[in-house]
Automatic annotation (TrEMBL):
Family to which this protein belongs: Belongs to the archaeal Rpo3/eukaryotic RPB3 RNA polymerase subunit family.
Subcellular location: Nucleus
GO terms, molecular function: DNA binding; DNA-directed RNA polymerase activity; protein dimerization activity
Region (Disordered): 1-25
Domain of life: Eukaryota
Organism: Medicago truncatula (Barrel medic)
SMART domains named among the record's database cross-references: RPOLD
Coarse class of the protein's main subcellular location: nucleus
Domain DNA-directed RNA polymerase RpoA/D/Rpb3-type: 97-397
Any one cellular-component term (Gene Ontology): RNA polymerase III complex
InterPro entries (UniProt xref): DNA-dir_RNA_pol_30-40kDasu_CS, DNA-dir_RNA_pol_insert, DNA-dir_RNA_pol_RpoA/D/Rpb3, RBP11-like, RNAP_Rpo3/Rpb3/RPAC1, RNAPI/III_AC40, RNApol_insert_sf, Rpo3/RPB3_RNA_Pol_subunit
Protein name: DNA-directed RNA polymerases I and III subunit RPAC1
A family per Pfam: RNA_pol_A_bac
SUPFAM superfamilies linked to this entry: Insert subdomain of RNA polymerase alpha subunit, RBP11-like subunits of RNA polymerase
């Protein structure tokens, strides 16, 4: 290399160092024998978790941009690559549950969505219960707790947090329900369900103690508002499930109460969590590294409880095992479990040599089970908005 070539290389290295050593200098990339992709075994280690019999291997994600610099491969995260590769594919959706694939994303981001879904998407839940009469066997505090856990079908976007109004109840932050049930004497035991919670659009009807004074003798209720005047409700607020059992009343027993629902998040209390659960798993990849034929094929199919394998006829009365439905793999590892060495029929590594169980590191099968208060697709878009707001806050703080 000429001295001017040396100088340009040196200046490029200097520039690279000033950039914190990130990226790979072009002069390396332009060398003829420098590969632009990783060798297969490293690519597999980078993109797959190997689920071995004893423990998973290569579970980490390689983030450092210069991790493969010695091989001439740039490992930096590029926004244009992300745009190109990121995909969301909805596989199954109902009013309460959604399964979708999130492809081309880092596990940390997938986990951020999971945590936001559980703890940060707001809902409405019963927070205060004013009990006028409770002669049932269920204690007041247990009854209140049970009521708090009933998902309320009301759009939280139409409401404000109680703290925004300084803790004062108004039509924008409180939904009032009334429950008055009695089991008459001589009647069989009565099951009290959530359908007995009736919305009070005009707010509380119970007289709050200590609100009378000489100056103002008129008794006051817990709230003074009229929600019917708000045109925004598409339907009346109500419990999402109408058959949640709240208590059982014997003859002569009675419950009379008012339940006030407010907006909150799961981080404060699990009753505000909009999901029963939100979880993900990496896409399973099951690879037959050798042909598995005839009796072995039959044995492999019978080993798998999730019906991942199938038999294919290869002619002349012979058959071989094929992977039919890798997505169904639960990673029970039965297919690679060997017969014990000491056991009759033990044959060393018969299966670990033939079956490779892996997980794709950037492909997540995400499941959202909503409590029903908010549809699962809306929940996910809300989680995206919350994460976006957080990112914007960080950028603002840093700039
Ligand atoms: S790990 Fe279990 S579920 Fe998965 S392919 Fe093997 S036997 Fe089937």
């Amino acid at each position: 290399m000429s001295s001017s070539g040396d100088e340009s290389m040196a200046s490029e290295i200097d520039e690279q160092e000033q950039n914190g050593g990130r990226g790979i200098p072009d002069y390396i990339m332009n060398l003829e024998d420098v590969p632009s992709t990783l060798p297969t075994h490293l690519e597999l280690q980078k993109t797959r978790v190997f689920c071995n019999l004893d423990a998973p291997q290569h579970t980490d994600t390689i983030q450092y941009s210069g991790a493969y610099a010695a091989l001439g491969v740039d490992n930096s995260v590029r926004l244009d690559n992300f745009y190109q590769n990121f995909k969301v594919e909805v596989k199954r959706i109902t009013d309460e549950e959604m399964e979708f694939d999130m492809i081309g994303i880092d596990p940390a981001v997938a986990n951020a969505f999971r945590r936001i879904l559980i703890a940060e998407v707001p809902t409405m839940a019963i927070e205060r219960v004013y009990i006028a009469n409770n002669t049932s066997l269920v204690q007041d505090e247990v009854l209140s707790h049970r009521l708090g856990l009933i998902p309320i079908d009301a759009d939280p976007k139409l409401f404000e947090y109680p703290d925004d109004a300084g803790g004062e109840n108004n039509e924008k932050n409180t939904i009032v329900f009334k429950q008055h049930v009695r089991c008459e004497k001589g009647q069989p035991r009565l099951t009290v369900k959530s359908d007995t919670l009736k919305w009070l659009p005009n707010g509380s009807e119970l007289i709050a103690e200590g609100t009378k004074s000489a100056a103002d003798p008129a008794p006051k209720t817990f709230t003074t508002f009229n929600q019917k005047s708000l045109p925004k409700f598409s339907k009346d607020p109500a419990p999402y499930n109408l058959d949640v059992i709240v208590a059982k009343l014997g003859p002569g027993q009675e419950i009379e109460l008012e339940a006030h629902a407010v907006k909150g998040i799961g981080k404060t209390h699990a009753k505000w969590s909009p999901v029963a659960t939100a979880w993900y798993r990496m896409l399973p990849e099951v690879v037959l590294t050798k042909d598995v034929k005839d009796e072995l094929a039959e044995e492999l199919v019978s080993k798998c409880p999730a019906k991942v394998f199938d038999i294919e006829d290869i002619g002349r009365g012979r058959k071989k095992a094929v992977v039919k439905n890798a997505r169904a793999c639960t990673l029970c590892r039965e297919c690679i479990r060997e017969a014990d060495e000491g056991e009759e029929g033990g044959e060393g590594e018969k299966w670990t040599d033939r079956v490779s169980l892996r997980r794709v590191k950037d492909h997540f099968i995400f499941t959202i089970e909503s409590t029903g208060a908010i549809p699962p697709d809306v929940l996910f878009t809300e989680a995206v908005k919350i994460l976006e707001d957080k990112c914007e806050r960080v950028i603002t703080e840093l700039s």
